[in-house]
Amino acid sequence: MNKKQDISLHYFSDSSASYVQPNTQMSGSTGQPSITQTEWSMLISDGPLLTPMDMPPRRKLEYILDPKELQNFAVQIARGMTHLEQKQITHRDLAARNVLINERKILKISDFGLSRSGVYVNTKRKKVPLRWLSVEAMRENFYSSKSDVWAFAIVLWEIGTLGGFPYPTVSDMDLLNFLDEGKRLEKPDNCSDELYTLMLQCWSKTPDMRPSFAEIVSHLDSVICRKRVYVDFTSLKPNYSFPPTEQQTEVTTNPKQSK
What SMART domains has UniProt attached to this entry (predicted)? Predict the structure, then answer.
């Protein structure tokens, strides 16, 4: 890995809160928490996804998504990233928003505007997807297939929360310190311990400790063969919303508040 350099981040107050611009000079600006651009929605048995304001009172929550389907999505993304890994291409912007799906539910990884061939050190001041970045990408602008593996685990978390915004209670400015302290995204309520263990492996602070995409595909395929369920909606309360609300996130992070 190349020699470390002091990196600060320049924060934007516009709608592109998912992206920030690396800055090699420390600035006096203060970071504000990013705001998700996804709609809060709840699943009902008949009709489209509705926002909480549109949700009829005391309506029973029905689960219309097949957990096996979500697992298949995860495998498809991992296989696509395995292909890039074999071609020695670093995507640098893997996120759920950059995965396309057609009417046959075939997924395709898109948006290669930030992709580079092989290991890459970014020295230009361009916007980057901060909340999907690995610690070495944040601190040193160092990107590799292992930083893509980190981002893939964020995508798994997005799938488990049906569109949750990563680190909703952590500001952009505090995120690197948050990760350096060993803290990570909390396990989604409907996510299995086995899947969360995989996420934590992908979020290892040491890149070489993270699995390759080929190993991830092998693991996910074995889970499907064993007919294990990674995402289970039946354990959620009827008033649970997707993505999880800030209050639900705080209860997950601080269990004592739920008492």
Answer: TyrKc (SM00219)
Domain that holds residue 169: 66-258
Query: If you average pLDDT over residues 137-157, what whole number do you get?
Result: 95
* Tens-place pLDDT, residues 217-231: 999 888 766 666 666
**Is pLDDT larger for residue 197 or for residue 247?**
197
Strand pairing category for 89-90 and 99-101:
unpaired
Cα–Cα dist 194/187, whole Å: 11
- Residues 121 and 143 sit within 8 Å (Cβ to Cβ): yes
Residue 177 lies in a domain: yes
**Domains contained in the chain, number:** 1
Q: What is the 3-state secondary structure (H, E, C) of 94-162?
A: CCHHHEEECCCCCEEECCCCCCEECCEECCCCCCECHHHCCHHHHHHCEECHHHHHHHHHHHHHHHHHC
To the nearest 10°, report the CA torsion of 32, 19, 37, 47. Answer: -150
CATH assignment of the domain containing 177: 1.10.510.10
Catalogue the active-site residues.
93
Whether residue 113 lies inside any domain: the answer is: yes
Q: How confident is the model at residue 19 (pLDDT cuts 50, 70, 90)?
A: low
| Residue 105 included in any domain | yes
The Cβ of residue 255 has, within 10 Å, a number of other Cβ atoms equal to 8
User: Is residue 166 situated within a structural domain?
Assistant: yes
Residue with tokens 């160092």: 142
The two three-digit tokens of residue 182, written as one number: 């060993």
